[in-house]
Write a structure and sequence with these properties.
Helix content: 25-40%
Order of helices and strands: EEEHEEHEHHHEHEHEEE
Strand content: 25-35%
CATH architecture: 3-Layer(aba) Sandwich
Structural class: alpha/beta
Length: about 240
């Protein structure tokens, strides 16, 4: 469970305070697929970073599996991320001096995971890159690099996957492939998936859509499944 309680983020811009997020509250149950949408500058990526503990809110609290992220030390946050949170960035963030296989392997070796090499090979299979594991990032296409990033994000079997515009730098064909791989692994491994996207077609496939505008939640709706059209309102804004 991810719980956001009256989260506000303000930064200094010149001589004025700029509010990026303004009193955001929401609860995301375990295993749910949520799309965060909204125009550029609406606060989507900032909110994702706060959930991951990569930044701190100015006000409010964030809980991940009952733990107050906003009160954790840097060491505790690093431990939380290594155990429970996988992050996929738009720009891949692979280590250029390591092969695809090694980029997936390293997070598990750091944690002392047993059979880390075997698991890394399984993850390469999951993202259809068995024959590319020995290649370095510069030898891979953008789509292939993002597939490595997805495999790395799942390396430590996180319960939460945070994805920040993971298809933003890809063409439509590769973007669809990445989206299908990511949502397939989400279903297979039953992880909570929070996806930041500008693409309405991708957002429409989520179980729930949260729309931000100027740092505030303006819509929070759950898709109706089992053949029933339309959306159910989760929260009146």
């Amino acid at each position: 469970m991810i719980s956001l309680q009256n989260v506000t983020k303000t930064v200094r811009s010149g001589t004025e305070d700029l509010t990026i997020l303004d009193d955001v509250s929401a609860e995301i149950p375990d295993g749910q697929f949520v799309a965060l949408t909204g125009a550029s500058g609406s606060g989507k990526s900032t909110l994702l970073g706060l959930i991951a503990g990569l930044d701190s809110p100015s006000e409010g609290m964030i809980f991940v599996d009952g733990e107050n992220v906003t009160e954790m030390s840097e060491d505790d946050l690093a431990e939380l991320r290594s155990k429970k949170i996988g992050f996929i960035f738009q720009s891949f963030h692979l280590i250029p001096s390591l092969t695809a296989f090694e980029n997936i392997l390293i997070p598990m070796e750091i944690r002392g995971v047993r059979d880390a090499a075997e698991r890394a090979h399984e993850l390469l299979e999951d993202v259809d890159l068995v024959n590319r594991g020995h290649h370095y990032p510069t030898e891979l296409s953008g789509g292939e690099q993002q597939r490595v990033a997805i495999a790395r994000a799942f390396a430590n079997e996180p319960s939460i996957l945070l994805a920040d515009e993971p298809t933003g730098n890809l063409d439509s064909k590769n973007g669809k492939h990445i989206f299908d791989l990511m949502t397939g692994l989400h279903s297979k491994r039953d992880v909570t998936l929070v996806l930041v996207t500008h693409d309405p077609q991708l957002a429409a496939q989520a179980e729930r859509q949260i729309v931000l505008r100027d740092g505030r939640v303006i819509s929070d709706e759950m898709a109706v499944r089992e053949g029933k059209p339309g959306l159910q309102v989760v929260q009146e804004i």
